[in-house]
Amino acid sequence: MKTIGLTGGIGTGKTEIARMLSNLGASVISADEMAHRTYEPDNPGWSQIIREFGRDVLAVDGCIDREILGRRVFADGALLGRLNAIVHPLTADLIQEELIKLEDVGEQVVVIEAALLMQVIRDDKKWNSLVDEIWLVNSDESLVLDRLALHRGLELTEIRKRI
Q1: HEC profile for 104-142?
Q2: By C-alpha distance, which of 112, 102, 66, 101 is closest to 87?
Q3: Residue 25: CB atoms within 10 Å
Q4: pLDDT tens track of the chain, all 163 residues?
Q5: Are 109 and 5 within 8 A, CB to CB?
Q6: How far, in Å, CA of 123 to CA of 110, rounded?
Q7: Residue (of 118, 162, 125) closest to 12 by Cα position
């Protein structure tokens, strides 16, 4: 099984390229989607996030309000580090589980779409150790800013914090 790591900054177009590769027959694992699963109620990530950040990050339905949590952590690098220390290992575990399932069914090409492919470390190995090759998506900053404002409704100051 060939595994491609698709990486690049926020808003550069990774998801669109992953969609194109999927249309060509590749299976795509989105690190963002895997991370979002760790936020689901009664998961270990959910419990750890509540212990670390308090119940005020919960929405009325008991789910973690990622918008509230995001505003807090992107305004404070130390808080972002604490959140990443919870979410990244759990996300890596989910990605690894998915890779095993895809290999078991004989999948030929898998794309792992992960903005932080080169930065995240798990068990003393970077996530990029999960892939055979790395594809970097790059985009003009003005296009990134326009894309994030349009698709995510973020203000320029919020966008710059996340970049």
Answers
A1: HCCCCEEEEECCCCCCCEECCEEHHHHCCEEEECCCCHH
A2: 66
A3: 9
A4: 999 999 998 889 999 999 999 999 999 999 999 999 999 997 899 999 999 999 999 999 899 999 899 999 989 989 999 999 999 989 988 999 999 999 999 999 999 999 877 776 555 556 667 899 999 999 988 888 888 777 777 777 777 777 6
A5: no
A6: 22
A7: 162
Tokens 């669109």 appear where?
A: 16
Report CA torsion sign: 119, 122, 124, 129: negative
**Token pair 């992107």: residue:** 74
